[in-house]
Design brief:
By secondary structure, this protein is an alpha/beta fold. It contains 5 helices and 4 strands.
C-alpha cells in the first residue's frame, strides 16, 4: 500500500477532496491522508460536490501537518503554490509531486458558478488521482 499525503494551505477543499477521491478510487492501492499549513475546517461546498460522486468527506477533519506522519509517507502531493513553497522538506525516500490547482474557496459569482468552480477542481483532482493510481499499478 502506497502512503500519500495531500497538502495545501487550509486543508479545507483541494486536499480534502483529494484525500476522499484517493481513498475511494485507490482502495487497496493508496493509503490517503491530507493536511494543511493552517487548517480552516472542511468546506461545506467541497462536501457537497463530493457527495455528487457518492463520496462522503463530511467526517474528514481539517488537520495540521504532522511531521512524524509526513516522514512515513511514500508520496507528498502539494496542491497549491503556497504549500509547495512552505511545506517542510520532503523526507528522504519520499516522492514529491506538485499539482497547482485553483483554490475553489476563493471563487466568486453566483452560488451555481461557485459550485461549478468546486466541480472543476474536483474533476481535475479525480483525473490526477486516477493517473497516480495508474502509475503505481504499472510502475
Amino acid at each position: 500500500m502506497v502512503k500519500v499525503m495531500f497538502l495545501c494551505t487550509g486543508n479545507s477543499c483541494r486536499s480534502q477532496m483529494a484525500e476522499g477521491l484517493a481513498r475511494e478510487l485507490g482502495t487497496g492501492i493508496l493509503e490517503a491522508h491530507s493536511a494543511g499549513l493552517s487548517p480552516k475546517g472542511v468546506h461545506d461546498k467541497a462536501v457537497q460536490v463530493m457527495k455528487e460522486l457518492d463520496i462522503d468527506i463530511s467526517r474528514q477533519a481539517s488537520k495540521s501537518i504532522d511531521e512524524a506522519l509526513l516522514r512515513d509517507m511514500d508520496i507528498l502531493v502539494t496542491l497549491c503554490d503556497n504549500a509547495a513553497e512552505s511545506c517542510p522538506l520532503t523526507p528522504p525516500g519520499s516522492r514529491s509531486m506538485h499539482w497547482p490547482l485553483e483554490d475553489p474557496a476563493k471563487a466568486k459569482g453566483t452560488e451555481e458558478e461557485i459550485l461549478n468552480t468546486f466541480r472543476t477542481v474536483r474533476d481535475e483532482i479525480r483525473e490526477r488521482v486516477l493517473a497516480l493510481i495508474g502509475d503505481i499499478r504499472h510502475g
